[in-house]
Each structure stands twice: as structure tokens, then as C-alpha cells.
Specification:
It catalyses: 6-carboxy-5,6,7,8-tetrahydropterin + H(+) = 7-carboxy-7-carbaguanine + NH4(+). By secondary structure, the chain is of the alpha/beta class. 30% of the residues lie in helices and 24% in strands. The chain has seven helices and nine strands; from the N terminus they run H-E-E-E-H-E-H-E-E-H-E-H-E-H-E-H. Helix 2 runs parallel beside helix 3.
Length: 210
């Protein structure tokens, strides 16, 4: 009976498979350099071969944690919260974002956009993946489009994805970490030729912080 009640709470978004939570500096995209509390939720079936948090994929490996407890921990550290994964939209984000907003927090999400948008967000960073493309509603809502560049074919993919977001959406290209030395010169050249785009680097890795 207890397992069933936990399963139902997870299904409703009242509990989430919490992989980790930590206070650090946002290292990527539009909010680079800002102090933020990260909530990493387990569960993802998008399956990027270069993913650097593959341990997040299986939600069964991460304990179902009450949203109230997650919110209480976040409130101790920061007014800027980043919900990431895994793929957080695998789950109903409504209860979590309601709790965080009730505490007066700015709530951001990093998502592939592959699942329906739930929750209330101040900032949506959409990082589309070819393996499981975003839904139209997430393109429309995105504040930031961040395309990971693993090879030269990703530049054409980035241009196609930019056609699907709003004109106010900020555009970023970010080299995949393992090929950064090869891809950074190509990204630099692309952004200079296409100045509507910006370069995003994983600055937290250069700073050796989580």
C-alpha cells in the first residue's frame, strides 16, 4: 500500500525522483555567472549519447522525495532556482513550481522540450535533441534556445530550430564538452557570421565547480 501511495504521489508531481540538489553558479546560457540552487530530477528517455549525467536517466535509482521538502531546502539558499535533469518535464512540475513561487523564487527550467510543458516558469531554456524533438508548445514558450554542438551538422540543425521559436527567444550555441577544442573555432566563426546567435560555454567546468 505504501509503494502504491508513493507511486501515486510521483504521478501527481507531489513527490519527485530527486537525484541531487546543490547551490552553485549557473555556468551556461543567458544566466551565466548567477548564483542559483539546482534541483536535478531523475528520469530521461531522450538518450543523448554524449550526456554527462547518464546516471540521471533511470528514475528508479533516485528516491521519491516530497516536493515540500525540496522547496524547504531550496528556500535556504537562493531566490533563483534551476530545475534540470534528466528531463524534468517527464513529471508534473505544477506542485514543485507552485511551492517555489509561493516562496517568492525565480524558477528556471532546462528541458529538451520532448514532453508537455507543466509548471509555472520565469525562464525556460530549451535545449532540443534530435533523438526526441520538442513539442510545439515548448518552442513557443522558450525564452532561450541552447543548441549543443557535437559536430558540424549541428549548425544546420540549430538554424532550423531557431525558425521554430519566438523572435524574442535568445539563441545560444554550446560546444559539447568532449569536443570543445575542435568545435569552439567553428562556433566562433558561425556566430560572427550569424550575430543573432551567442556563444555559451560550460564555465562551471572551467571553474571546477558543480
Amino acid at each position: 500500500m505504501l509503494e502504491k501511495s508513493i507511486s501515486q504521489a510521483v504521478e501527481k508531481g507531489e513527490m519527485l525522483p530527486l537525484m541531487e540538489e546543490f547551490y552553485t553558479i549557473q555556468g551556461e546560457g543567458s544566466h551565466t555567472g548567477k548564483a542559483a540552487y539546482f534541483i536535478r530530477v531523475g528520469g530521461c528517455d531522450v538518450g543523448c549519447h554524449w550526456c554527462d549525467v547518464k546516471e540521471s536517466w533511470d528514475p528508479e535509482k533516485h528516491p521519491p522525495t516530497a516536493v515540500d521538502a525540496i522547496v524547504a531546502n531550496a528556500a535556504k539558499y537562493s531566490k533563483t532556482i534551476v530545475v534540470t535533469g534528466g528531463e524534468p518535464l517527464t513529471w508534473d512540475m505544477g506542485p514543485l513550481t507552485t511551492g517555489l513561487k509561493n516562496e517568492g523564487m525565480q524558477v528556471h527550467i532546462e528541458t529538451s522540450g520532448a514532453y508537455p510543458l507543466s509548471g509555472t516558469w520565469d525562464w525556460i531554456c530549451l535545449s532540443p535533441k534530435k533523438m526526441k524533438m520538442p513539442l510545439p508548445e515548448v518552442y513557443e514558450a522558450a525564452h532561450e534556445l541552447k543548441v549543443i554542438v557535437f559536430n558540424r551538422h549541428d549548425f544546420a540543425f540549430a538554424k532550423a530550430e531557431a525558425e521554430k521559436v519566438s523572435s524574442n527567444c535568445k539563441l545560444y550555441l554550446q560546444p559539447e564538452w568532449s569536443v570543445r577544442e575542435k568545435m569552439i573555432p567553428m562556433i566562433t566563426e558561425f556566430v560572427m557570421d550569424n550575430p543573432e546567435w551567442h556563444v555559451s560555454l560550460q564555465t562551471h567546468k572551467y571553474l571546477n565547480i558543480p
